Structures
1.
Amino acid sequence: MNKIEIQLALLLLVFIGLGCQSNKGTKSETASETNAYYTEQHRPQFHFTPEANWMNDPNGMVYFEGEYHLFYQYYPDSTVWGPMHWGHAISTDLIHWEHLPIALFPDSAGCIFSGSAVVDHNNTSGLGTDGLAPMIAIFTYHDFVGEKAGTTTFQNQGIAYSTDKGRTWKKYGEPVLKNPGIKDFRDPKVMWHSDTEKWIMTLAVQDHIEFYSSPNLIDWKRESGFGKELGAHGGVWECPDLIQMNVEGSDQKEWVLLVSINPGGPNGGSATQYFVGDFDGQKFTTSQKAIKWIDYGADNYAGVTWSNVPEKDGRTLFMGWMSNWWYAQVVPTEKWRSAMTFPRELVLSAGKIIKSVPVKELELLRNRNTSITNKHITDNFNLTQEVPFDLSLSELNMTLIPEENTSSIKLILSNSLDEKIEIELNLRKNELSVDRTKSGKTDFSERFYAKHVAPIVIEEKIKLQVLLDVASIEIFYNDGECVMTDIFFPTQPFNQIELVSTGAGLTIENASVYQLNSIW
Ligand code: FRU
């Protein structure tokens, strides 16, 4: 090709590229005409998934002018992990999402790994224009060339800014925080620390956390390290988050540090631990000895919280990646891979436990419902007959009162092929478990075939909230005191539900089942 032909070909490519991107903004016409949009086998209906291809961690979650932004690790060319971009979606209610074009593309400094986004209200960065507060994304550049060449400095922190509500982004250029020679040096989560009037970056550095501070998001100074000798260390530390939380029922505040770890989770592979302590603008300290987990299921990883949530809302809003590096790249979905967890509110209890519950906006999805009160059961109770609608998208809320000799309570979700998920409350061992060994397709990974177990405190009344969405279950025990999130791939959707009491019976004080609507 001569020079002009090359230029024409390039122009054509740009047009095709732009066309592809703008298609991502809305449902494609043919799909919505035939009503086939988001109806593939195993496609979650009220959880966020990309239209196509690979997704992992949520990134840059920030609220700005009426919109919740969700960026995410995205590889647009395949259903397995590859050079990372930041995909982008927005929502006005945390529930319904609109896909926007890819926000950040790889460049000569590397591809775009996980990170966060803030609103620079005082324009400390000077990157705002005409009095507009810029949105700033802070991410890790991962340079494959440097990695292949065997250097240790291939992960560096970069920033990009937007002055049009996150619709378009400009990179700042040079990385703002250079790697001091440690391979794993990534996933910056940035927050404004009002007491010291500085930005604080929380960074995962191999087996610990490092804190950096900055007056302007551009010049960073190391403050301290945390965690080499504390917490779980079965794998590399990733995707941290530092948040200040109100203690439930008091006006006391505590600092909380979330740290994802892979592998080394309580049920294998990826999981997120947390520390409750104090942060003085330089150092995080804690007297916590126990290892605490945000979620005991196998499928909630790299979760962090939204920044810039309005004070009058005041919630700590969280979302995680609903998969596990142990098998994420081989799960049996064809067009896309992975979903996010349902958005959750985190609450810090007086006993310094982080409780998670689905955000209250879940109510927007409620459709038909059925409820049962004060029903005594002796052994098996087929709940399906009480539910005159399809259960495969549903929310179940229950308060159960076991008898003294009741040793186990099971909730079994199944289909006509006898594929099932068994949730068990073992009242003798004080355990909650999810068994997905008979849940349908499991042979794509040995590690997927498993029963997951969590410790619980059993009280006189047992409260459960369960979200079931085609390919996932999220179990919130006792107002979110213990949470389990697990994915599965049944050949047909689960549409039957049974309650089984062993040892003695129980009373269903209250059970309500809601059919939920699809968000797509
Ligand atoms: C966590 C993680 C991050 C990294 C990203 C790459 O799942 O490994 O540490 O930034 O994924 O996609």
2.
Amino acid sequence: MAENVNDLMEKLVSLCKRRGFIFQSSEIYGGIGGFWDYGPLGVELKRNVKNAWWKDTVLKRDDIVGLDCSIIMNPKVWEASGHVVNFNDPLVDCRKCKARYRADKVFSVSARDGDNVLFAGGVEADDESGAQAAVLAGANSKTRRRLEQHGEALAWEMHRLDQLPGDVAAMCPNCGGELTEPRKFNMMFKTFVGAMEDSSAQAYLRPETAQGIFANYRNVLDTSRIKVPFGIAQIGKSFRNEINPRNYTFRSREFEQMEIEFFCAPAEADDWYKYWRDARYNWYVTHGLQSDKLCLRDHDPAELAHYAAGCADVEYAFPFGVAELEGIANRTDFDLKAHQTASGKDLTYFDDETKERYVPYVIEPSGGVDRATLAFLCEAYCEDEAPDEKGNMQQRVVMKFHPRLAPVKVAVFPLVKKEGMPEIATKIHQDARKAGLASFYDEKGAVGRRYRRQDEAGTPFCVTVDGQTLEDQTVTVRDRDSLAQERIAADKVVQYVKERIG
Ligand code: GAP
């Protein structure tokens, strides 16, 4: 069983709580499944992810404009988009304990000791080791002992719910009870607008930001001096009533998306699709995800939605498995045509140069802010050794964030709280802030402990004011990753850090 994987996730989750990156939502009341809060360091990290995306996709380009539209929209939007009818998960219920699972995630696992089937149960798992773990958790104590003793030697077989061999029944992972037939469950959260709580007042929390872009396509075209090909970008909250929120923030019920709908001429759609597919993959590499943990997976034609002419996922090797960070799709003219038909509004585009009128094709790079943030957290987590004040090597945990994403860019310490050192350090800290750098001032405890705290926060540079500063106005700057220390002029700290974080 993959203990090291669980270990790594456990360590990361514990660091995120201990250092204020991520907390369970409403934790003081026992939490609520699928909802997460970002603490003081986490909110800066996540904001840096969003700012980097916004700057690179909107502010640095002439062909993309931004949008921020409402979360609750006219319910007709979701009828036209197909979400009311098609945004479903197949569900099964346990007849005995009433637990509910996504049917496509239920596996049956049998552990065989020769001809003897030790345990067969339906389990929700992404891979074999997860399935085995769930079988162990669900087995009675006698069976569990046998499985633990002989687990490695046993033959494990996994089957999807719809492909069960005759001698293995789909059973509840929780209690072993019988499961119902799969049925459809719509994942949109419902609410009511106004005083009435009946079907005429029913509305939905958006399950994606994309439809707000399609609904505003005409407005943007008419009000900005933009021409096809162009894109509309939006970052915002989306909500999905996921049946099995899991893997920390990876699958949540409330999350943020960063989406672009890029409108182009049908004949150019293939080229733009390839362009965005590569550009989005490279964006993650540029921000520190190592290419051997990233992959750009083209969907098989059989996987494509009926309207899509191409789709690729940027996937990342999380500690719990390889999973999607972002999808890039060529959605053809499906969405604009659907809204044109349902709203009766003209959503065609007239090309002045070719004198052609057409409904543009759409290339959609659609990423998750929380998933990207989780990938950056996983990638950053490192354990190595650093010397303490006496020069003895000590284990340290360090978050090696890309400098652009690091929540704090520079920390400033006076070596001791006297001899004017705090005053000099405070001035450097304030200058850094004035220059727009996220800076942290710390004068408490041994300097080695202050370094450790900043290593766990992922701060790229620590600046120390010491006795020598009083003589020659220089300070030491310590590099988080190489641990190299150099002396530079105190009044050059801001310039030094700015040059290095880019
Ligand atoms: N407009 C297309 C769309 O929404 P999607 O594949 O359903 O496509 C896009 O979602 C991205 O949103 C995913 O690649 C993922 O990063 C993020 N996402 C989707 N569901 C999520 C969830 N339950 N929790 C966190 N992120 C999610």
